[in-house]
Design goal:
By secondary structure, the chain is mainly beta. It is built from two helices and eight strands. The strands form two sheets. It has a six-stranded mixed sheet. The protein has a two-stranded antiparallel sheet with strand order 7-8. The radius of gyration is 13 Å and the shape is globular.
């Protein structure tokens, strides 16, 4: 199944580009493709450059919480805490995510 793609507005994603792991609702230009809240989506800047992937939740001001800054990151394996960007988790601890169906 192909992931939905979140495209940022020009100038959007400043917090993420400065090292943050989140994208606010007002930074998103549009979302292409089908998704449900909690799905993993690809994130691209305004000109289509891949910026990584993350969980989407349209009910939150922080609409995308990034999992990885790698393009086309697979969620079929555990991500390390470093890749996940989670604070307060010991680096190297595997985080097991469900495989995309």
């Amino acid at each position: 199944m192909e992931r939905a793609v979140v495209t940022l507005k020009k100038g959007g994603g400043r917090a993420m580009k400065a090292g943050g792991m989140w994208i606010y609702d007002n930074e998103i230009e549009f979302v292409s493709g089908d998704f449900e809240n909690g799905d993993v989506v690809e994130v691209c800047d305004f000109d289509g450059y891949g910026m990584g992937c993350g969980f989407i939740n349209t009910r939150s001001k922080i609409t995308v919480r990034m999992l990885s800054r790698k393009k086309k990151q697979s969620t079929t394996r555990g991500l390390s805490a470093h890749e996940f960007g989670a604070h307060g988790i010991i680096a190297g601890t595997p985080l097991i995510l469900p495989a995309a169906v």
